[in-house]
Amino acid sequence: MSVSSSHPAASRNLKIGIVGLGPFAQFLSKTMIRQGHILRAASRTDYSNLCAQMGISFFRNVDELLEAENDVILICTSILSLSEVLQSLPLHRLKRPTLFVDVLSVKEHPRNVLLQVLPEESDVLCTHPMFGSDSGKDGWKDLNFMYERVRIRDEDTCSSFLQIFESEGCRMLEMSCEEHDKMAARSQFITHVIGRTLSEMEIQSTSIDTKGFETLVHLKENTVRLSFDLFSGLFLRNRFAQQELENIELAFNKVKQKLVEKMNEEQNLNNSTLR
Ligand SMILES: NC(=O)c1ccc[n+]([C@@H]2O[C@H](COP(=O)([O-])OP(=O)(O)OC[C@H]3O[C@@H](n4cnc5c(N)ncnc54)[C@H](OP(=O)(O)O)[C@@H]3O)[C@@H](O)[C@H]2O)c1
Question: Start and end of every Prephenate/arogenate dehydrogenase domain (predicted)?
Fold first, then answer.
């Protein structure tokens, strides 16, 4: 892994075609528009009204999006729909070699599918902005942005795209998709499992909350706000996640066992003093 702070090429305004204009793409779009990039989008849902308000050209038909002269095609669909969405893209409509970028929260899966589906002349940049509308609501400064330059020939376009995040002050982390998935299974995935578990327990703020408990309530609220597709994608499309789920269960049982042992010890002591 390497942390970089500057890219040599000067940035330029990009024409970015977004595939999948769900909550995360909408969140990213606001900053890209503010920076002066030109956005177009196509999505399963009709976002014409929202796009008219935001200043994004919306295409009901993805053919038209791919035919437009885009510098970048930004894939923002759910993890689970990625294969289906990519395989249904009319890639023969592309007018010129284009940089494909994805922002999925798992990385080996999109890397493999993009390499399998895209024409050889398309460049591929796999990224994971490791923040969302809650953690990034006051700006992106010092927030982690992971990327792997999977197949890059057009350095200028790639650098200009990375500049979107770098210029907002993100911590730019270049690493392999495999490295990302290993670490994310042991960090982000665990966070989501704990958040979802707390939600199943229906935890609520009380009048005597400790700071620690406030953190748990916040965690619960932030994880359940995200779609279940996203959560299950973190599990189903990251080959390291299953082991981590088992580790959580083993660890929970160990903690429980320690408490039960202590309880038994105390009971035995009480019984022997009574005798
Ligand atoms: N939310 C975050 O904080 C965050 C942070 C980093 C990365 N990401 C990544 O960003 C991507 C989008 O996340 P999200 O939070 O917006 O929610 P999501 O539920 O993961 O994805 C929603 C997007 O997927 C599209 N979609 C879902 N099922 C589809 C299907 N069967 N066919 C076609 N399109 C389908 C939706 O299209 P329509 O809206 O048109 O129905 C929408 O654009 C995910 O890959 C996620 O891992 C999210």
Answer: 14-275
Is residue 248 over pLDDT 60? yes
Structural domain count, the chain: 2
Q: Predicted confidence band at 11 (pLDDT cuts at 50, 70, 90)? A: confident
| Residue 81 Cβ contacting ligand 1 at under 6 Å | yes
* Strands (DSSP E) found in the chain: 2-4, 15-19, 38-42, 57-59, 72-75, 99-102, 123-129, 144-151, 171-174
What residue owns the CA closest to ligand 1's atom 32? 81
Closest C-alpha residue for ligand 1 atom 5: 132
Structure tokens at 14: 């990009």
Shared-domain flag, residues 28 and 63: yes
By 3-state DSSP, what share of the chain in percent is helix, strand and coil, each rounded to 5? 50, 15, 35
Write out the two tokens for 234.
């973190």
Does the predicted model carry a pTM greater than 0.85? yes
Domain hosting 131: range is: 12-175
